[in-house]
């Protein structure tokens, strides 16, 4: 639970080694390479060769990205749900020629895909041609015989419902020789032979009757012969397609290698990008960056293999080192919640661990249900097991998995099992009456939980929510106090914190006698002696509270030089109580979200119980119930996540947090499909 | 005049008032959700015409303003069940029916307005998705803050009805 100490690293090496050094540091995964300063004989690195290399790798990446989906379609590799990860030694993969073979496979694949595309296009065109020839199969003149010096041939079709006899008569009167080729439901297909001088008059006549000229290829063959040719061509295309497909199937064997090649090329791109950050002299390069202090040994050891000079330094005054958070296994999964807000400034307190505990607690209270919690646990931890997600996703799933555990614990405490599902089932199948199961011991356990049911005792749950809020806020103040003490301002730390705690203590002592009547409506539930104790506490609380007011007024301004400064600070302290009150009330959202999830679940159970009389109804309602609960889970999961985070960001962090840290971003090899075998430190 | 009194008596029965409550709780948040989803979906259409691959990511933003309609339906169901309208043996007094009508008001109006406003935020989130896909999570969070007021409205309605 700390922000890792950073060291600034400067490496001076021969330009020839630059590539190897950057790769080596990348594989160590703990060097955040920064832009090296130029000036004083240092120039930006000569980048032409580097950029050409990157362009080549990017071209290959584009090709590989195009090829992979095609290969994946034909691969015989067993496809699981998860991400397949090959663990290989990339250097060996390049050295033994597998990389070259994989690249050839990519090129062949893309050639085959392109050929298939053009074949498919040709097949479509040929099929269309064959189809357009069908009505003309009975026409025995070549298709390009469109007349002689004196005559002209017009081919085309009338709509099907045209009367051929009438038409023939009309056209023959106009001077055309008419040959009906086909007459079916698609149209009346005609070939007209006309004298050239009559042609325009006849065309006008044709257009008025809805005649459409046929768009036929000018082939020196009859329609039948052309159609046969097209069929032959299609058969040939089919066989070529088949062989191209066979080739893809063969290439698909290389899918694994192609995926490895992708990672290699993408890593090369990253190496080139990192190298652009270096500065250069005539024959040397300078690399600057940040490493965690505890990685010093590994990095210097790795660099000792090269002829280079390496210097490590503490961050200078005013220099912002990047922030790397170090936490235990549980809290690490919550780091991204902090990242969504902002990392803490370098050298300040890392609140991840404390925040993770409160987040865990508050998430559970907002979504107190064993059933939903179990679904979260199964979904998230199962997802990690089955899908093998990338590290970022893995952490997020683990966090929601932990939160699911919290939901289950709170569900047992506050009686949430998919809402009131157990008692609803007992009522409708065992007791056949409403409200009976809740009174039996088992039903009581499921309905009320170990403490109480928030829906029936919403005031109690509100008080509990505010109490959690108070502890959360006090924790925030305590962190602030400790941090201020560390900076050497002990007196200020105590004077601006403890008086508020005195006031809070007073209010806490006062509270039981105020809320006891709201919480416990049964007068017999509170014994007289307990009431007396509460009354006594409230008297003590009253005086403590006033003492708190006084202490705030007196001590909040300690350290101010003038009387006015002291008074203003003191009054300001009292005024700030308003913001405390609003912070505290903000925790009532725990009640709101907790109740809504529970009540919606109850309504779903109620609805489904009503329809579950017959066997068919039972099955239907079971489906409705499952869908309803899944929907409820989805709606409330997002709300709970957001509002549990908001209570950290605004209310908790507001008390102490110094934000604005820049995340530590080490140069990493690309591991989309493979995991680079970590090379040995020797 | 008498006939009017008769008609009024026939319309404003306890049962009908409770039904009006259930109807309001369904209709108004439904209108709000329809409007909200409509806004986000239109923005999404612009986005996917540029980049169809982002549709999956846009779905969450589109789904956000849907919840108010669901909340309204939950409240309506609860009114129908607790008042006995769904069981068929309801004979509510005018005052009792009126109680359900007023109890439906928070989610009816809160849902209507918050769904439209949430739709506006989510539609703006679509343009975040277009320009900075990595920041879309933050846009989702902004939009889900508006949701809180629908949750509060639903909570009060439910507590009144139960």
Based on the model shown, name its key terms:
heterodimer; A: 682 residues; alpha+beta; Alpha-Beta Plaits; 3 domains; 6-stranded antiparallel beta sheet; 4-stranded antiparallel beta sheet; 23 helices; 16 strands; extended; B: 162 residues; mainly alpha; Four Helix Bundle (Hemerythrin (Met), subunit A); 6 helices
Description:
The complex is a heterodimer of chains A (682) and B (162). Chain A has 23 helices and 16 strands. Helix content of chain A is 61%, strand content 11%. In chain A, strands 2, 3, 4, 10, 11 and 12 form a six-stranded antiparallel sheet that branches. Chain A has a four-stranded antiparallel sheet with strand order 7-8-6-9, with helices on one face. Chain A starts with a strand and ends in a 6-residue tail after the last strand. Chain A has 682 residues and is of the alpha+beta class. Chain A is extended, with a radius of gyration of 40 Å. Chain A has three domains: 2-95 and 254-313, no CATH class; 144-215, Alpha-Beta Plaits; 326-496 and 556-661, no CATH class. Chain A has helices at 18-28, 48-74, 90-95, 98-133, 164-173, 199-208, 223-251, 255-275, 296-303, 329-332, 335-341, 352-366, 370-387, 391-414, 421-431, 441-448, 458-486, 490-495, 498-519, 528-555, 563-586, 588-611, 615-652; strands at 2-3, 6-14, 32-34, 43-44, 86-88, 151-158, 176-184, 187-195, 212-213, 279-280, 284-292, 308-313, 325-326, 343-344, 659-661, 674-676. In chain A, helix 4 (98-133) runs antiparallel to helix 7 (223-251) and helix 12 (352-366) packs parallel to helix 22 (588-611). In chain A, 33% of the residues are buried. With 162 residues, chain B is an all-alpha fold. Chain B has one domain: Four Helix Bundle (Hemerythrin (Met), subunit A), CATH 1.20.120.610. Chain B has helices at residues 2-11, 14-50, 55-63, 67-83, 94-131, 136-161. The A-B interface holds A 340, 455, 458, 589, 592-593, 595-596, 599-600, 603, 606-607, 610, 631, 635, 638-639, 642-643, 645-646 and B 60, 67, 70, 74, 77-78, 81, 86, 137-138, 140-141, 144-145, 147-148, 151-152, 154-155, 158-159, 162.
């Amino acid at each position: 639970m700390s922000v890792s100490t950073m060291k600034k690293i400067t490496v001076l090496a021969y330009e020839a080694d630059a590539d190897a050094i950057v790769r080596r540091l990348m594989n160590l995964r703990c060097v955040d390479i920064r832009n090296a300063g130029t000036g004083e004989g240092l120039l930006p690195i000569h980048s032409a060769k580097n950029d050409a290399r990157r362009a080549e790798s990017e071209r290959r990446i584009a090709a590989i990205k195009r090829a992979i989906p095609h290969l994946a379609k034909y691969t015989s590799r067993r496809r699981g749900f998860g991400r397949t990860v090959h663990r290989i030694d990339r250097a060996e993969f390049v050295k033994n020629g597998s990389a070259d073979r994989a690249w050839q496979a990519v090129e062949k694949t893309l050639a085959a895909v392109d050929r298939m595309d053009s074949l498919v296009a040709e097949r479509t065109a040929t099929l269309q041609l064959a189809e357009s020839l069908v009505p003309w199969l009975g026409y025995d003149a070549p298709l390009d015989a469109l007349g002689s010096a004196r005559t002209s041939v017009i081919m085309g079709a009338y709509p099907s419902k045209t009367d051929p006899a009438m038409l023939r008569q009309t056209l023959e009167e106009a001077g055309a020789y008419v040959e009906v080729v086909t007459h079916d439901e698609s149209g009346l297909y005609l070939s007209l032979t006309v004298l050239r001088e009559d042609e325009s008059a006849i065309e006008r006549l044709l257009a008025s009757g809805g005649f459409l000229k046929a768009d036929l290829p000018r082939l020196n063959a009859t329609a039948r012969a052309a159609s046969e040719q097209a069929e032959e061509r299609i058969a040939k295309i089919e066989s070529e397609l088949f062989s191209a497909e066979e080739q893809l199937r063969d290439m698909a064997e290389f899918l694994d290698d192609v995926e490895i090649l992708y990672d290699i090329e993408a890593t090369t791109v990253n190496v080139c990008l990192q190298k652009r950050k270096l500065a250069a002299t005539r024959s040397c390069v300078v690399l600057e960056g940040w490493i965690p202090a505890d990685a010093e040994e590994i990095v210097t050891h790795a660099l000792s293999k090269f002829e280079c000079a390496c210097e490590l330094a503490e961050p200078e005054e005013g220099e912002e080192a990047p922030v790397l958070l170090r936490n235990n296994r549980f809290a690490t999964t919550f780091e991204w919640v902090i990242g969504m807000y902002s990392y803490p400034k370098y050298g300040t307190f890392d609140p991840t661990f404390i925040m993770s505990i409160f987040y865990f607690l508050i998430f559970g209270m907002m979504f107190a249900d064993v059933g939903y919690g179990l679904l979260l646990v199964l979904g998230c931890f199962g997802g990690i097991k089955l899908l093998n997600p990338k590290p970022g996703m893995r952490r997020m799933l683990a966090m929601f998995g932990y939160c699911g555990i919290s939901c289950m614990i709170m569900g047992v405490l506050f009686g949430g099992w998919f809402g009131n599902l157990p008692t609803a089932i007992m009522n409708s199948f065992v007791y056949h009456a409403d409200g009976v199961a809740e009174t039996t011991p088992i039903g009581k356990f499921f309905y009320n939980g170990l403490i109480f049911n928030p829906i029936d005792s919403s005031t109690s749950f509100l008080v509990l929510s505010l109490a959690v809020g108070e502890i959360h806020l006090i924790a925030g103040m305590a962190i602030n106090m400790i941090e201020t003490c560390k900076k050497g301002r002990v007196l200020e730390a105590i004077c601006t914190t403890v008086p508020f705690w005195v006031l809070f203590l007073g209010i806490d002592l006062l509270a039981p006698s105020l809320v006891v009547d709201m919480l416990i409506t049964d007068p017999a539930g509170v014994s007289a002696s307990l009431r007396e104790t509460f009354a006594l506490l409230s008297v003590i609380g009253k005086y403590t509270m006033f003492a708190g007011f006084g202490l705030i007024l007196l001590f909040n301004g300690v350290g101010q030089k003038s009387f006015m400064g002291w008074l203003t600070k003191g009054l300001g302290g009292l005024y700030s109580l308003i913001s405390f009150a609003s912070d505290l009330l903000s925790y009532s959202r725990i009640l709101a979200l907790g109740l809504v999830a529970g009540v919606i679940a109850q309504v779903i159970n109620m609805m489904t119980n009503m329809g579950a009389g017959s066997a068919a109804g039972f099955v239907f309602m079971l489906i409705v119930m499952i869908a309803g609960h899944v929907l409820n889970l989805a709606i409330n999961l997002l709300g709970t996540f957001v509002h549990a985070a908001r209570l950290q960001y605004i209310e908790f962090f507001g008390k102490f947090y110094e934000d604005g840290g820049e995340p530590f971003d080490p140069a990493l090899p690309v591991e989309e499909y493979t995991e680079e075998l970590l090379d040995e430190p020797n | 005049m008498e006939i009017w009194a008769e008609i009024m008596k026939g319309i404003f029965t306890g049962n009908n008032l409770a039904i009006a409550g259930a109807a309001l709780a369904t209709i108004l948040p439904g209108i709000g959700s329809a409007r909200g989803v409509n806004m986000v979906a239109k923005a999404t259409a612009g986005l996917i015409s540029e980049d169809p691959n982002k549709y999956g990511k846009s779905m969450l933003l589109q789904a956000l303003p849907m919840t108010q309609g669901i909340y309204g339906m939950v409240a309506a169901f609860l009114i129908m069940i607790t008042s006995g309208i769904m069981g068929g043996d309801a004979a509510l007094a005018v005052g009792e029916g009126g109680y359900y009508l007023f109890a439906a008001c928070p989610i009816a109006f809160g849902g209507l307005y918050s769904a439209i406003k949430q739709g506006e935020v989510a539609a703006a989130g679509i343009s975040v998705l277009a320009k900075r896909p990595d920041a879309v999570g933050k846009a989702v969070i902004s939009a889900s803050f508006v949701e809180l007021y629908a949750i509060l409205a639903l909570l009060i309605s439910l507590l009144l009805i139960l």
